[in-house]
Amino acid sequence: MIWIIIFSLLVNVGFFLKLYQDRKVKKDVEKQLQWIIDENALAKIRHSSSSKSHDNLVNEINRMVEKVSETRIEFEEMVQQNKRMVSSISHDFRTPLTSMLGYIQILQNDSNSLKDEKYLKIIEERTKILKNLVEEFYSLSLLESKEYQMNFESANPIILVQEQVAMYYSELENRFDHISIQLFEEKIALLTSPVDFNRLIGNLLKNAYTHGIKRFALYNEMTEKSLILYFENQVKDANLIEVDRLFERLYKGDDTRAVGSTGLGLSIAQKIAEALEYQLEASMKESTLQLKLTIPLN
């Protein structure tokens, strides 16, 4: 009988010790959470070696903290990108507008017909730059909205790429001393949006002849699960290009700012690639920029 009493006492003592310990751990967790909330900190909560159930809870809380931390970092980066975008937009609109106003004033004070024609040509070019900039912003805003619709149909991506190359070959030829295009024709039936696919390829080609020099190469390879397209062009100064920023809105690589470039082409290309569930990556190998487009096969 006495052993039963002793055993009962031990069980009760153990129970109350466990209850006390659990409350202590709970209070500690609450205290840490309160500190995180009050200080707007994203530190992880410490584990308690005495309680597996509490450790599981702490693990879940820490996972949530990690997600919040990642979201905060992404938000802060987005804020910085928007600040850079606003600054760049101001420059991109102000420069051609100032130029146009200046030439208009010259025309008003100068009756020389030859000069008139020259200045009108310059105004026309600046107007086209503004028009392209507005159109690119509109396209980007559509792609970023939830209302944008793509019309999918079966198409051969190699044929679509060849058509885009033919369309822009004159620009490529005028820009580069050496062009290498090796597209191995494959009988592929891919479900895609031809309009958006063409826009994507067109933007990659435009980026090449707008910013590249001397050499351009376009080739493809096939794997069991995907078609991969490589766009390569030599650049003037690889040190001026931040590869990890190439797909940012309005990024142009350096302060000299390429003439006629909106800085939105690659950003739009990336958005289209994401919408089509493709993967678009950039890398620099010495003085050669490579854009790699991976297209999953249906």
Overview features:
alpha+beta, 298 residues, 7 strands, five-stranded mixed beta sheet, 6 helices, single chain
What does this structure look like?
The chain is α+β, with helices and mostly antiparallel strands. The protein has helices at about 1-40, 50-110, 115-145, 155-175, 195-210, 265-275; strands spanning about 155, 175-180, 190, 215-220, 225-235, 280-285, 290-295. Strands 2-4-5-7-6 form a five-stranded mixed beta sheet. Strands 1-3 form a two-stranded antiparallel ribbon. Helix 2 runs antiparallel to helix 3 (about 115-145) and helix 3 runs parallel beside helix 6 (about 265-275).
Inertia-based shape: globular
Q: Work out the strand percent.
A: 15-25%
Spans of at least 5 consecutive residues with low confidence: 9-17
Helix content: 55-70%
Sheet with the most strands, sense and barrel status: 5 strands, mixed
Total beta strands? 7
* N-end to C-end Cα span: 76 Å
Helices, by number, come to 6
The rounded Rg comes to 30 Å
Assign the structural class, choosing from mainly alpha, mainly beta, alpha/beta, alpha+beta, or little secondary structure: alpha+beta
Compute the average pLDDT: 75
Spatial sequence of strands, sheet with the most strands = 2-4-5-7-6
